[in-house]
Amino acid sequence: MTKYRVDVYADTICPWCYINKRSIDTAIKNHQAQHPEDEFDVVWRPYMLYPNAKVSAYNKKDSFLLKFGPTAADVLDRVQRVGSSHGLTFTWEGRTGSTRDSHKLILLAASQDAASSSSNHTPSPPLSPPPTTSGDSPPLGPCAIPTSSHDADPRPESVDVNPRPALRHDGLTTTHPLTSKQNAVTEAILSGALTRNQDISSREFLVPIALAHGLAGTAEEVLRYLDSEEANVRVDAEMARARVEIGVTAVPSVVVNGRYRVGGMQEPGVFGGLFERIRAR
């Protein structure tokens, strides 16, 4: 039996991150069909592209057009075409803003998953900084933080396959990654914000998701958590760790078993190939 730890660094307003989620889910499903004894932990971690964004302050389509500048039409068409091959139809209408609250809920779901599985779950390999040697397949491109308002389609990263010594593990685990609470909450948030014109920064959108997936018993409890110092500190700590310890500069970015980094959006076969290489070692 092989154990896999998949840490996904993403922002909930990034369409490439949603497509990458579908790729990861498909790769895990395909792998477990061939190797049902293998186990996966998948944990979604925050990386806010715009950490200082305000709530409901921006037109969503205008934000994407500004981000990609003169190439915006081509980039959005490309996103739509690739998304369609994964069963996704993106919409760009409505308001948008800070993604901070959405990350708080995703982390809360991860903690609840960990609590429910801690009694019978064997810890996964610890997390380490990603290696630097490029590997097999170029991705379609990450949602890099723009250095100006006219950044083009972000430059691709690579698949890194050389292991390094592992660092600490923070205890978050997901025994059944495709049916976990965090996976369901992440899917609901990404779907609403990117395919149903919902405002990612609106608590009117986020609180019902939290309640529907059992993160709290009442709306008041959800709001107290979102306003808590604990929730804010945790998101900030995760962001700092991503930058300093892991070296994340763009999303999506995936680290497998704390040793192998997959940068940018990749197709399921790339993840599947990496899982097989790890299994063979």
TrEMBL record:
Residues 111-122 have a biased composition (Low complexity). Residues 5-115, 180-266 form the DSBA-like thioredoxin domain. CDD domains: DsbA_FrnE. GO terms for molecular function: oxidoreductase activity. Residues 123-132 have a biased composition (Pro residues). Residues 111-177 are annotated as: Disordered. Pfam families: DSBA. PANTHER family: GLUTATHIONE S-TRANSFERASE KAPPA (PTHR13887), THIOREDOXIN SUPERFAMILY PROTEIN (PTHR13887:SF41). This is DSBA-like thioredoxin domain-containing protein. It comes from Podospora aff. communis PSN243.
